[in-house]
Write a sequence for this structure.
């Protein structure tokens, strides 16, 4: 199986982590995992992956956002493509930096945002298109 | 802060006097003019009298009497011309108006004396006409003048009689059949006649001027009464404004603002303060202070135990002082002195015998507050206390509602996470990542996946509902073009309807007005209604959406020829989780949240929703959305001709929470969610993945009271 790229999968829910890891690995991606922002940061500093899948609410409600903004403001990591996941899309809409329409705008530190559960087909298609772009 | 106002409490005295004088002078002028009109009758009467007396054979100096009549006529014309020179405001020419009156009286007396002289002097029967003059003089002139004129009459008559008796002036007696009453021959008779005349005149002068004095006093009293009434009216207005504030303002701060401002204005005082008692009754906090320097109340807390004054007021005793110079009574006495405040009045704010605070009034004048003001202030304090209590209760209820919505949202969020994980794991198994599955395994996993999907949808809708009920998400106030939404709805449902073999039609008139509201919400409203229509209508049926223009609103009709809603289910239509048996027969696993969301959106837009349905024939939902937000979108249901009279019309109901009316079939679904909710409520939120507890049937969606 040829390697399509390396993805850092950040989610504090081990069930989501496991199931996404299986799906992605079966589709030819190399997967590293992290369960919180601190671990994710360490993993990135060790080696920058081709893409990061990042849950928003982990230990804190905004942990994913905090990490994403931190990386965007760091010239070393600002080119790392991020695909965000959340179970609470309406909460993100409500309390996030702006309405959903701005998610893909400059305000947002991520390339895309999916609401969990995400259909594997859609997720794979999006990952492929993001990796092709960058 | 308002500009400083005068604090006299009444109008300036000079202004008041001037006003009174003006009224009196205007009356004097009117009376003078009335006498001129009355006097026109005198010359014709003299003429008639002369004629009658001549016919009866009375002999007298007729020519002289007619000359007197002519004299009266002439001076009355002169007075008429003089009277026209007075303008509308007689106070400018008070002196000339007074001499106008005096001249009239003087000339009338002269004419009267002449008439008496020519009709027999002391023996003249006309002397009693003087009584009218006395009456008129006392009406027209101050009472002293009336007495003066009566003395003049009596003395004048004495002089006339004496002069005739002594032969200084010719005596002109009345002759009847050659005989006459010659009082000159009988001085005693003349004296007696004069004496009685003098007495009659004096009594008349006394009587009329006393009556006039009484009348004038009455007028003064009425004027004063009038003033009191208008003052009372002002106070009533203030109380009314306070009552209005109770009804219309539900915000605590706004209520404080309104009542202090209104009270300061009507009591004409510099400042009004409201101190509120803490729950434990130990502290008084300044909640509002209208017209007072900020230093007095800003962040100030009074410890009740250290303030004998406040303790006394809290015990129910009003406190009045005209001299704020007792520093031991006032904790902030220096501040009051610095603001030049000298009088203060404090009464307790009481609701149902419970003191909630203290209402205070401050004035820069010393000794300002009398007992009447204290009474009024107590009355006002009662209303203020109710207003504040009302606002507080409203805010508490509002917080409770928000709290409930927040809680529901939190519960829903925490239900979503494990379900999302479940579905994610299912995807792995179903996708064959862990090895191939046989068909039966696939089928059962498909069912499992579908049930999880239903649960997720239910939670999403629950979240939508909770969100729209919490104030956090406001309904956008934007221009909504319904024709654009109509096009989108058509696109969304066209294929689905065609697949099912339904006739799906949307009608939008050209002149449909745009409305104000939240287009996302309105689209969701229509999606829910149309998707229901399609879901519950069998192949070959029809689903129609018709937009039309109403009076100040837009009418949207969503009709189908589907299974219809049993009339017994109509009252429960907008209750969460409610699903009728017939709906369950079509789709086993609906959420029962679609119509509650529709109703919530209609409510948020100030609109109305009505439904007409007949089992087996179809259902029509009619939604009215106001063109302007806040304007009433409602129409009286009886005027809506398109709704059949005998069909049950269900106007949108309050958020009925009568769980006991849930039908048995819906009960199961509701119980399930309640169990989840209960489990979630027992979860410590800091550890979101706690274990689920056992279910309880009627779990109330409530948390302990919010802090704050």
């Amino acid at each position: 199986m040829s390697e399509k790229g390396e993805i850092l999968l950040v989610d504090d829910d081990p069930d989501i982590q496991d199931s996404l890891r299986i799906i992605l690995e079966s589709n030819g991606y190399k997967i590293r995992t992290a369960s919180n922002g601190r671990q994710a940061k360490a993993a990135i500093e060790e080696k920058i992956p081709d893409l990061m899948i990042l849950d928003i609410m982990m230990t804190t409600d905004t942990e994913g956002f905090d990490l994403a903004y931190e990386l965007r403001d760091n010239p070393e990591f600002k080119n790392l493509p991020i695909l965000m996941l959340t179970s609470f899309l309406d909460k993100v809409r409500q309390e996030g930096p702006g309405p959903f329409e701005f998610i893909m705008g400059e305000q947002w530190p991520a390339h895309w945002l999916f609401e969990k559960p995400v259909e594997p087909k859609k997720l794979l298609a999006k990952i492929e298109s993001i990796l092709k772009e960058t | 802060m308002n500009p400083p106002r005068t604090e006299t409490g009444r109008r300036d005295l000079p202004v008041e006097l001037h006003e009174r004088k003006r009224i009196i002078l205007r009356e004097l002028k009117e009376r003078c003019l009335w006498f001129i009109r009355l006097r026109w009758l005198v010359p014709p009467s003299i003429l008639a009298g002369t004629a009658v007396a001549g016919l009866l054979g009375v002999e007298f100096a007729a020519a002289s009497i007619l000359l007197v009549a002519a004299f009266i006529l002439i001076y009355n014309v002169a007075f008429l011309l003089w009277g026209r020179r007075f303008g509308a405001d007689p106070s400018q020419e008070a002196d000339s108006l007074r001499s106008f009156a005096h001249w009239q009286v003087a000339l009338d007396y002269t004419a009267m004396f002449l008439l008496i002289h020519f009709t027999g002097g002391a023996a003249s029967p006309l002397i009693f006409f003087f009584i009218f003059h006395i009456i008129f003089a006392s009406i027209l002139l101050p009472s002293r003048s009336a007495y003066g004129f009566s003395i003049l009459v009596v003395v004048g008559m004495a002089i006339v009689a004496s002069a005739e008796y002594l032969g200084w002036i010719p005596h002109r007696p009345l002759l009847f059949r050659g005989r006459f009453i010659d009082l000159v021959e009988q001085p005693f008779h003349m004296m007696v006649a004069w004496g009685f005349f003098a007495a009659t005149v004096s009594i008349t002068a006394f009587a009329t001027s006393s009556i006039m004095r009484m009348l004038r006093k009455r007028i003064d009293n009425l004027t004063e009464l009038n003033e009191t009434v208008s003052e009372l009216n002002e106070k009533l207005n203030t109380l009314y404004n306070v009552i209005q504030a109770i009804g219309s303002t539900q915000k605590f701060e706004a209520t404080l603002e309104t009542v202090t401002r209104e009270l300061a204005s009507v009591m004409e005082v510099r400042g009004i303060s409201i101190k509120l008692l803490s729950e434990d009754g130990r502290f008084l906090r300044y909640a509002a202070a209208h017209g007072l320097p900020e230093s007095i109340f800003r962040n100030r807390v009074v410890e009740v135990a250290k303030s004998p004054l406040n303790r006394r007021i809290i015990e129910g005793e009003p406190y009045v002082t005209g001299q704020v110079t007792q520093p031991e009574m006032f904790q902030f006495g220096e501040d009051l002195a610095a603001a030049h405040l000298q009088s203060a009045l404090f009464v307790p704010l009481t609701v149902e015998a419970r003191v909630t605070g203290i209402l205070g009034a401050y004035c820069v004048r010393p000794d300002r507050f009398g007992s009447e003001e204290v009474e009024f202030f107590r009355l006002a304090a009662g209303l203020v206390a109710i207003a504040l209590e009302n606002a507080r209760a409203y805010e508490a209820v509002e917080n409770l509602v928000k709290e409930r919505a927040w809680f529901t949202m939190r519960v829903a969020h925490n239900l979503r996470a494990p379900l999302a994980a479940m579905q994610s794991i299912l995807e792995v198994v179903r996708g064959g990542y862990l090895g191939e599955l046989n068909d039966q395994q696939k089928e059962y996993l498909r069912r499992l996946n579908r049930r999880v999907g239903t649960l997720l949808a239910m939670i999403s809708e629950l979240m939508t509902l909770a969100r729209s009920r919490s104030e956090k998400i406001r309904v956008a106030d934007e221009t909504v073009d319904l024709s654009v939404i109509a096009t989108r709805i058509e696109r969304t449902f066209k294929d689905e309807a065609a697949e099912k073999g339904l006739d799906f039609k949307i009608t939008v008139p050209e002149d449909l007005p745009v409305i104000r509201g939240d287009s996302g919400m309105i689209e969701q409203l229509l999606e829910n209604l149309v998707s229901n229509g399609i879901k519950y209508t069998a192949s070959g049926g029809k689903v129609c959406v018709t937009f039309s223009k109403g009076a100040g609103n837009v009418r949207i009709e969503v009709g189908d020829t589907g299974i219809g809603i049993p009339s017994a289910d109509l009252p429960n239509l907008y209750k969460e989780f409610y699903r009728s048996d017939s709906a369950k027969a079509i789709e086993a696993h609906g959420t029962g949240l679609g119509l509650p969301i529709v109703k919530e959106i209609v409510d948020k837009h100030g609109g109305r929703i009505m439904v007409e349905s007949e089992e087996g024939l179809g259902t029509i939902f009619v939604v009215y959305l106001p063109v302007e937000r806040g304007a009433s979108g409602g129409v009286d249901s009886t005027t809506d001709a398109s709704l059949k009279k005998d069909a049950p019309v269900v106007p949108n109901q309050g958020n009925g929470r009568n769980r006991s009316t849930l039908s048995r079939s819906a009960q199961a679904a509701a119980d399930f969610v309640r169990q989840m909710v209960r489990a979630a409520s027992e979860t410590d939120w800091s550890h979101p993945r706690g274990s689920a507890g056992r279910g309880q049937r009627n779990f109330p969606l409530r948390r302990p009271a919010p802090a704050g």
